[in-house]
Amino acid sequence: MAQATSTGITLKGSVAIVTEFFEYAINNILYQREVYPPTHFKKKSAYGLGLSVVNPDVDEKLARYLSTVLDKVKTWLDEGTVQKLVLVIMTKETAEKPSETLERWVFDLQPSPASEKPVEKDRKEIQAEIAAIQRQIIASTSFMPMTDEARVFDLLVYTNEDVETPGAWEESDAREFQENQSEQVQLRTLDTTKHKVESFVSYRLVED
């Protein structure tokens, strides 16, 4: 859990909050957008909500992958070298059809502006901001199109150019949409006073 002091959330505490937020957001998206069957998830209480997270007893490979990525993201948050996290959902590539981007969930991270007087913010207020974003992810099923095609996902981590990435990681295409082929919805902002996360989702328009 993040630590609070008389002058507000510490930098270490903010890193823990943001990392935990990413973890629940990614799991929530994978569940709500049906990238994996519901049986691959289990319910967990967080931020006053019942959220779904990957069950390692059912899909140990996926749980290990997410843990590995988030551990690295936490290290980069500590170092101040991570800029953005993007979860891309796309159709599964087949011999007949190449993969196509369906959704891009973007979490744009930036340091909160420094001020002479430390800004105090109650942890409950921060949790309320996170809960609001998680509710928006859950509500996405009401307005975003769903396809019957098999889906896969990728996590893109944007860092400073001088950051050394693990050997197993690869440079990836941004999987951007072409102009006028997507709709964008802005999500709520998370601000710990040490980090600010601006979030939005872009999704492929469905032809009538």
From TrEMBL:
Tell me its family: Belongs to the MAD2 family.
Record-annotated HORMA domain positions: 12-201
Where in or outside the cell it occurs: the entry states:
Nucleus
Organism whose genome encodes this protein: Chrysochromulina tobinii
Q: One cellular component GO annotation, for this chain's record? A: nucleoplasm
Q: Which GO terms describe its biological process?
A: cell division; mitotic spindle assembly checkpoint signaling
The organism's place on the tree of life at top rank: Eukaryota
Listed name of the protein: Mitotic spindle assembly checkpoint protein mad2a
Q: Which UniProt keywords apply?
A: Cell cycle, Cell division, Mitosis, Nucleus
Coiled-coil stretches are none
